[in-house]
Amino acid sequence: MLSRKEFFRLAAGAGLLLTAGCASTGGANTSSEGSAGVVRRSALALPEPFRVPLPVPPVLKPVRSDDSTDYYSVTQQAVRRSLLPGVQTEIWGYNGIFPGPTLSSVRGRRVVVTHRNALPAPTVVHLHGGRTPAEHDGYPTDTIAPAGSRDYVYPLDQPAATLWYHYHRMDFTGPQVYRGLAGFHTHRDDHELSLDLPSGQRDVPLMITDRSFRADGSFDYPSLDPSLLDTPGVTSDAASGVLGDCILVNGVPWPVLEVSNTRYRFRILNASNARRYELALDPARTPFVQIGSDQGLLCAPVAHQTLPVAQAERFDVVIDFSAYSVGDRITLRNLSGSGSTADVLRFVVTSKAADHSVIPAKLADLPVLRPSDAVVTRDLVFARGASMRGMAMWTINGQPFDPNRIDVFARLGTVERWRVRAQNVEHPIHVHLAAFQALSVDGGVPAVGWKDTVNLDSGGRADLLLRFDRYPGRYVFHCHNLEHEDMMMMGNIQVG
Ligand code: C2O
Ligand code: CU
Ligand code: CU
Hints:
Radius of gyration: 21 Å
Mean pLDDT: 90
Distance between the termini: 55 Å
Bound molecules: CU-O-CU linkage, copper (II) ion
Number of strands: 33
Number of helices: 5
Strand content: 35-45%
Structural class: mainly beta
Largest sheet: 7 strands, mixed
C-alpha cells in the first residue's frame, strides 16, 4: 500500500481523492490521468495491491512440427475466471486464459496457428509487429465466423522481437481486447541467442492492462450505444478512450514478483486500450536499461529513469537488482496515474544468486535509414473528426476509415518518410507490415531501433522512415487507442 504521505501527495497532484481498494462513487468522472479517455470507477472494492504472485503465461507447445514449420492450435473461448478475490469475471481468452498462451518462435522456422472460434462473435487475429503476408495479417474485415476456424501462416523472417497477438475486427477491437483477447509472441534469432542476456526464469514478459469491474465482477466496458454519446461534434466518454482503475499485470491485479539480486530482462507491453504509463522504480537505485524496442534489439543499450509506454509499445529492459539488498521491496510505479493507478507491480528481493548475464555495449548491427532513402514524403494528421449520426469519430487527414478506399499506395521494396501529427489529444500510431525508424518524436531523437508504434502527445509530431518490404497487398495503419481505432482512426495501405 502507499504510505499516507505518498497517498496525499498523489491525491493532491491529481486533484481528487481516491485510493486502491476504495469503492466506486458510480459513473465515470472526467479524470484522464494523462491519457485520452475517462476513468471508469469499479463498483466493487479493489483488492489490496501486492498480495498475489505474478503469473507468467504458459508457453504454447506445437501440436506437431515438420522440417520447416511448427503447428499450433488455439481455441478462442469465453470462460469464467477469478481475477479478483470472491468474484468471477467472464473473459474471452485464447485457450480460455488472459493473457493468452505465449507463442515462441525462432527465425528460420515458420509458424502456423490454427485458430478455432468458440466465441459467440466473429473474430480476427492480428500478430502485432509480425511481418506477415497480407492474407494472414488479420485485416479488420477478414473474420472467422463463430464455430469456424482458420490457419494463420507466419513466415517470421524478421529479427528477434517481442511481438503480441490480439483481436482486430473492425469496430470491435476495443471491447474484445478488453475481454482478454491478447497474448505474447516472443521471437528469437541466432544473433540474440548468441548473447548472454538474462534468460529462462529471468526473462519475464509483463503485459500491463487497466480494467474496471462491475459489482458482480464482470468487466465494466461501456457499450458504444449511441444513446450514451454526447451531442454531435463532441466525443463521448467511451469514444475518447476507456480507462480502468485496476492495473493488471499478466491478468492479475498489482502482483508481486520475487527476484534474486541479479539482472532480469522484462519484456514490457502496454496492452491497455487507452492508458499510457510512465513507469518508474521506487526506490530508484538503478535505471531501466533498454535493450530492445517494438521490433527487436537496439543498436546499443540506453538507460532510462522513467519509461513512457504508450498502448501497444514494447520496451525490452534489464533491471539489475544487485543494486538492492535481500529483503528490499521495489515498486514499479506509474507516474502518470493517481491513487490505484499509480501502482503497477512490486518486486521483492528474496535471495542472492550468481549472475552470468551480460549486456553488451553493442547489441545489434542495424541498418540506419536516412531521409535520402525515402522515395516519397507524406504528411498525416490524426485528429478528432465531426460526428456522424451522433457518433464521435476520429480521422486521418480528415477521413474516417473506409475499407474500400486506399489511403496510401506504397511501392514494395522502398522507404517512405511519414511526418505524422496528433491533434486534440495524444495518439499512438501503429503501422502494419512496415517497421520504421524514428528521426524524431515530439522533438526528441530516439535510440536507433525498429519500431511499429509511435506515441504522439497532444499536438505532437514524429518524423518516421518506414521500410515496405517482403509482401505486397493491403494492410492497415491506425491509432492504437482502441476506442479511436474502433471509431474509424484507420487507413489502408496498398503495397505493390
Ligand atoms: Cu496491435 Cu493493427 O494492431
Ligand atoms: Cu499490427
Ligand atoms: Cu488516437
